[in-house]
Write a structure and sequence with these properties.
Strands 1, 2, 3, 4, 5 and 6 form a 6-stranded mixed sheet that branches. The chain is α/β, with parallel strands linked by helices and about 220 residues long. A hairpin with a 5-residue loop joins strand 5 (about 125-140) and strand 6. It is built from 9 helices and 6 strands. The chain has a single domain (about 25-200), classed as Rossmann fold (3-Layer(aba) Sandwich).
Length: about 220
């Protein structure tokens, strides 16, 4: 009984500490709402991973979720060609250019920059862990100010969802890990990260002018 009594104050302190934990800070949409972007320019992606194909693969996953939030999105392949013709063939050069210049080139209201931080598959014992991670920044096409930013990642292990045990299970895990390492499926993870970044209410965009709840879901 004494032992249980001695534990009570500690439990009470833990409960109080949990109750005093700071609430998750809500995104500040003041600049975003003041800018009222309608047309968003998604520029080529900067790649910090070792996978040279990551930027092009990722770029194919981002236009649809942005458009589904209610914004016009310029066709990304057309944007890439126009920028190349304008001397901006390198994504790092594009990200270093003034947002106002890029926006004026297409008549955009805002420019979305994305950096691939991770796009890799690592073999761990008899498993393979596939990871993607991105940073997103939306800048005003008139002032160049940052309107919104986010950083999201997604992880998948080859044995995820496998409930088989014993030697057969170990062999199955090893085979799945080898397949995942040889040909990792990054695309579902990229879409998952994009969905998490753009989710609203939450970290993502409020509804744009091409959604019926525009200016009503704030």
């Amino acid at each position: 009984m004494a032992r249980h009594a001695s534990l009570a104050p500690a439990a009470l302190l833990l409960a109080l500490a949990a109750g005093c934990a700071p609430a998750q800070k809500k995104p500040d949409y003041a600049k975003f709402l003041a800018a009222q972007p309608r047309a968003i320019l998604i520029v080529p992606v900067v790649n910090k991973s070792v996978n040279v194909d990551a930027p092009d693969y990722f770029l194919s996953t981002i236009p649809v979720p942005v458009a589904e939030r209610g914004y016009y999105v310029f066709p990304v392949n057309m944007v890439k060609r126009v920028l190349e013709d304008d001397g901006l063939a390198d994504a790092a050069l594009v990200h270093g250019a003034e947002p106002q210049k890029l926006a004026a080139l297409f008549g955009a209201d805002a420019v979305l920059y994305v950096t691939v931080e991770r796009w890799d598959a690592k073999y761990i014992v008899v498993d393979t862990q596939v990871t993607v991670e991105f940073t997103y920044v939306l800048k005003d096409g008139k002032t160049g100010e940052s309107l919104w930013s986010a950083r999201r990642s997604a992880v998948h292990t080859a044995s995820q969802g496998s409930g088989q045990g014993g030697l057969a299970g170990l062999i199955a895990k090893a085979v799945a890990a080898a397949v995942a390492k040889a040909a990792p499926n990054y695309m579902p993870l990229a879409r998952q990260a994009n969905a998490a970044a753009l989710e609203y209410p939450g970290p993502g965009f409020p509804s744009g002018p091409y959604r019926p709840e525009y200016q009503q879901d704030l």
